[in-house]
């Protein structure tokens, strides 16, 4: 059961690894990448079962998570930051003239404003998610180090307040929050990479009392009624 509990983190991160690295690839490259990720997950599973060392699991999870997050940050900035996106377009199409009249310029300004707002919200999600997993990791390590003391305190306090001192439980809660934010960010980023920012809306009414969701906009809603960016959080 311990392996199932911990390896699920590896498998989820491997799925995110494939999602971010396979975008825009040919079918052949995507299949090869899938086989690589599958082999990696199987190798980690087998070696962890052989070692039975939690440190190995922690290191592999941290390495995979860092790779996915850093790659996603890079793709997000290059694809959505207007200055970097236009720079990439000019390098690939130095003589192209995408905007030739006032209406095109207005549409470009709208899209740039929309994408800047999206970037601002995405970076807020990243900061919140990283803070959550870092806080959970800290609490987990403190729980491991001071386990006898915390266990004695839980017995003295009793239920229900003794649950507050369950450090490993807080680790699961906080990593769960971080994982959900990472998945939601990945879904939203995929829509953006496919040029479908206007087809979906990011909703996060409150930073601490609600969870963010990506929902499809009403296709019947006229274009001029759509907002340029995501709904702001409190």
Q: Please, could you describe this protein's structure?
A:
Helix 1 runs antiparallel to helix 2 and helix 1 packs parallel to helix 3. This protein starts with a helix and ends in an 18-residue tail after the last strand. About 5% of the residues have low confidence. It has a two-stranded antiparallel ribbon with strand order 1-2. The protein has seven helices and two strands, in the order H-H-H-H-H-H-H-E-E. It has 234 residues and is mostly helical.
Helix content: over 70%
Radius of gyration over C-alpha positions, nearest whole angstrom: 22 Å
Q: Give me the number of helical elements.
A: 7
Order of helices and strands: HHHHHHHEE
Strand content: under 5%
Shape designation: flat
Tell me the layout of helices and strands:
Layout: H1 2-22, H2 27-51, H3 54-80, H4 82-92, H5 102-145, H6 147-157, H7 167-193, E1 200-203, E2 213-216
Antiparallel strand pairs: 1-2
Helix pairs in contact: 1-2, 1-3, 3-4, 3-7, 5-7
Question: What attributes characterize this protein structure?
Answer:
234 residues, two-stranded antiparallel ribbon
Give a quick rundown of the structure:
With 234 residues, the chain is mostly helical.
